[in-house]
Amino acid sequence: MNPNNSKNLSLGRISEIQKNSYTILFEGEELPAKLKGSFYEEEEADFPVVGDYVDFELNPAGDSVILAIRERTSFLKRPDQSKTRVMQNMVSNVDYTFIVTSLNEDYSYNRIARYASVALQGNSLPVVVLTKSDLCSNVGRYIREVETISDKVRVHAVSAIYGIGLDELEEYFKPGATVCFLGSSGAGKSTLLNAITGTEIMKTGAVRESDSTGKHTTTHRQLIELENGAFIIDTPGMREIGMSEAQEGIDDTFEDIRELECRCKFSDCRHETEPGCAIKAALKSGELSEERYRLYKNLSAENTRNYAKKKEISKWHKAYVKYGILKG
């Protein structure tokens, strides 16, 4: 879709979306906007997400009109839990994905691996930020454990309340860089955000002591520009994140296992009874742990299962729409 020539044509960035209403960040101001009608005429239209750079027609007196989406450098998405046949597009043009996990009952090695796979699939560098380090007596153990997820994952332990470790995060907030915050409710995303910016730009919620979970203090994705020209995208809390259309990200996360598979004697080795299996040898020697290999297999199987299911449902949905049984 090419934007029409216009003397009011401008380049901005999507900072917020509420149903069909968009907000564009442009020269330090937030402008209300709507989509050009042709977006809705396409059968499988690619709608803007928070973080997108868009060409738009400026209207100082009302809603500006979004004409086109610029090419994305990264694109994070996940299976939409409410719509079986589609993926949920989350954010775009993100340099670093902060996977925020608190060092209490919220901590989950499995969930961090899932987030890392989604980030790598979307061409964003995963950075695990372990919050509330002041409440943990063995921080080093968790850092070492997270480091085993992938050599592409960076990890930092911080305490936003006491300012511990925050200086380690400064390298990610250079002018022009975009950092997306992902994590479950109660993980300390909003508190961390406030500590980094030095101002209370996000409301924080109390955490229940019984299960160390908190209320959703962020209800929608929002892009914020910092004074130095860096950008932050905050997202609602997610307890779980599914796998679909993320096999490349999974393979990147578990690159060590992929390399072992390439050493197997047979290219179609199932790693069961075949001779010369590098996976079995690594498991026996302890080079590869049973837990890590099981997690890799589970995520890959879930991704394949969900992708096949969504592809089949999407095919039937298109057929129903084509023959007028359903509306698109």
Which strand order does the major sheet show? 10-9-8-11-13-12
CATH class descriptor name of the largest domain: Alpha Beta
Low-confidence stretches: 205-218, 316-328
Question: How would the global form be characterised?
Answer: globular
CATH fold annotation of the largest domain:
Rossmann fold
Distance between the termini: 20 Å
Rg, Å, rounded: 22 Å
Report the sheet-strand fraction: 15-25%
Main beta sheet: strand number and arrangement?
6 strands, mixed
Mean pLDDT: 84
- Secondary-structure element order, N to C: EEEEEEEEHEHEEHEEHHHH
- Count of distinct strands: 13
- Percent helix: 25-40%
The DSSP helix count reads 7
Describe this structure in words.
By secondary structure, this protein is α/β, with parallel strands linked by helices. It has three domains: 9-69, Nucleic acid-binding proteins (OB fold (Dihydrolipoamide Acetyltransferase, E2P), Beta Barrel); 75-234, Rossmann fold (3-Layer(aba) Sandwich), CATH 3.40.50; 247-322, Probable gtpase engc, domain 3 (Ribonucleotide Reductase Protein R1, domain 1, Orthogonal Bundle), CATH 1.10.40. 27% of the residues lie in helices and 23% in strands. The chain has helices at 109-121, 139-147, 189-197, 247-253, 255-262, 278-285, 290-322; strands spanning 9-18, 21-26, 29-35, 53-57, 64-69, 75-79, 87-92, 96-102, 125-131, 154-157, 178-183, 222-225, 231-234. The strands form three sheets. A six-stranded mixed sheet has the order 10-9-8-11-13-12, with helices on both faces. A five-stranded mixed β-barrel has the order 1-2-3-5-4. It has a two-stranded antiparallel sheet with strand order 6-7. Residues 205-218 and 316-328 have low confidence and may be disordered.
